[in-house]
Design a protein that fits this description.
CATH class of the largest domain: Alpha Beta
Oligomer: single chain
Number of helices: 12
Structural class: alpha/beta
Radius of gyration: 20 Å
Distance between the termini: 35 Å
Shape: globular
């Protein structure tokens, strides 16, 4: 987690760092910068990335714009960035889904998560929530499990794609609860959420960002949050541990990456701008509205976050024998 320091100090730190950078980094960016999001629009990564893009554009004086390239468990967009010119003008905003889990499932995703990218900064973190269509009689996780056990294979859950955090979390829940449910992968979480709302699916596990407005509006019913503690946005919704499944924990983090070989000075400049923005009340409030908290930190801390998740998810992927769908 990044250090806390006053907003004025954050701005001063950014100016000092920029003053010490090589000429190429001092002039960067001198044209618009593309941030590829490997999910569909309106998903968690996309929504959080748009907050960051706006802040970077303001701080660095050029447009940072989002381009969504979804598919294959977030691997398509990640692969495209991995093979882009390492000039700082094509970046990747991703999560554990694309940078950790999918490379464990897909035999050849087209990139190595630890070697193909230059980590810039961890950005934000949110909770994963289990939601159902409110027309169903499920008022608790116990209700859901009882029905699933009595009707194996009759419940369908959507995910943001094979190899994403929502998919793997659901598989972990199925294993822990001893139930059978049908997986329906999509090209992004927003699409699976819409099908749950429409009644085409019964449930999904998804990050809080795109779910909270639908929960508040009554289009979805939250049964549990998959964090160790209840979240402020849903104080009456129990944790998955309170529901009896303490091992089914998941968080949704986002981070910014550049292709491997990107000038270290450019990485440092972007890192400083991100950390400075995350100190502001406006950015923290924007993230809070999406059910996220500011994270921030160094490139190494983003690498450490990935390594920790690789250690966490690898045995689960192997035990569940997951394959691309």
């Amino acid at each position: 987690m990044m250090r806390r320091f006053p907003r004025c100090a954050a701005g001063a730190a950014l100016l000092l760092i920029c003053g010490a950078l090589p000429l190429r980094a001092q002039t960067y960016p001198d044209r618009p910068v593309k941030i590829i999001v490997p999910t569909v629009a309106a998903g968690t990564v996309d929504l959080v990335a748009r907050v960051m893009a706006n802040d970077l554009g303001t701080a660095l004086g050029k447009q940072f714009f989002i381009e969504n390239r979804s598919g294959a468990g977030n691997t398509l967009g990640s692969r495209d960035v991995a093979h882009s010119d390492p000039d700082g003008y094509t970046l990747l905003m991703s999560s554990a889904s694309g940078q950790v889990i999918s490379p464990l499932i897909y035999k050849d995703p087209g990139y190595d998560p630890l070697k193909s990218f230059a980590p810039i900064a961890p950005y934000a973190e949110g909770s994963v929530i289990l939601v159902v269509n409110p027309s169903l009689p499920f008022r608790s996780v116990a209700d859901l499990v009882a029905y699933a056990k009595a009707n194996p294979g009759k419940l369908s859950y959507g995910s943001a794609g094979t190899g994403t955090v929502p998919h793997l979390t659901a598989e972990l829940f199925k294993s822990a609860a001893g139930v059978s449910m049908v997986h329906v992968p999509y090209r992004g979480g927003a699409l699976s959420i819409q099908d749950v709302i429409a009644g085409n699916l019964q449930l999904t596990f998804e990050a809080s960002s795109p779910l909270l407005p639908h929960i508040a509006g009554g289009q979805l019913r939250a049964l549990a949050v998959l964090s160790a503690k209840r979240i402020a946005e849903l104080p009456d919704v129990p944790t998955i541990g309170e529901a009896g499944y303490p091992t089914v924990l998941a968080a949704s983090w986002t981070g910014l990456f550049a292709p491997a070989g990107t000038d270290t000075a450019i990485v440092q400049k972007l890192n400083a701008a991100i950390n400075a923005s995350l100190q502001t009340d406006a950015t923290r409030q924007a993230l809070a509205r999406l059910g996220n908290v500011a994270k921030g930190g160094t490139p190494q801390e983003l690498t450490d976050l990935m390594i920790a998740d690789i250690k966490k998810w690898t045995p689960i992927v192997q035990a569940l024998h997951l394959e691309p769908q």
